[in-house]
Amino acid sequence: MAQQNRSRGVSEQKLRGSTAFLLAQIGAHAATQFGERLKSLQLTRPHAGILRLIGLTPGFSQQELARRLAILPSQLVALLDELQERGLIERRQDAKDRRTYALHLTKSGHDVAEQMGRIAGEHDDAVCAALDIHERQQLNALLGRIAEQQGLTPGVHPGYRRLSRKPRSK
Hints:
Blueprint: H1 2-7, H2 12-16, H3 19-38, H4 45-56, H5 62-69, H6 73-85, E1 89-93, E2 101-105, H7 107-127, H8 133-149
Antiparallel strand pairs: 1-2
Helix pairs in contact: 3-7, 4-7, 5-6
């Protein structure tokens, strides 16, 4: 196919598209593939991101987490309820403010987070298989600069902003 297109005068770069298009194409593909990998843990991508952040910042309040994810607190509460029902997180009353709940991973939550980390590493290896370690580090640094310049929150997928909750089925 590529040979046919070159013979028609279409360059490889035109076929690939712009850098922004490639980022979107690879990002969508990577997100879908990661979601598929998470099915082995019976997690969705939003659940995984929340578990990751709680694991990195134990004691975060629900309000702090909602702000960080840029989602409505009611949307977050529903996701947290699902994680709590599975025994992966617990809400503890804050000693300083009894109206506030601090979020923590349970033992099961830590175990699942550890498994998620392995899956994420395997996923990163698969997505970046065409690159050597130096190229991967360079790409990570460049993408980090773009993300910072675009005002993206480190470690938070922008998809949380578009998250729409479907009614939970029991």
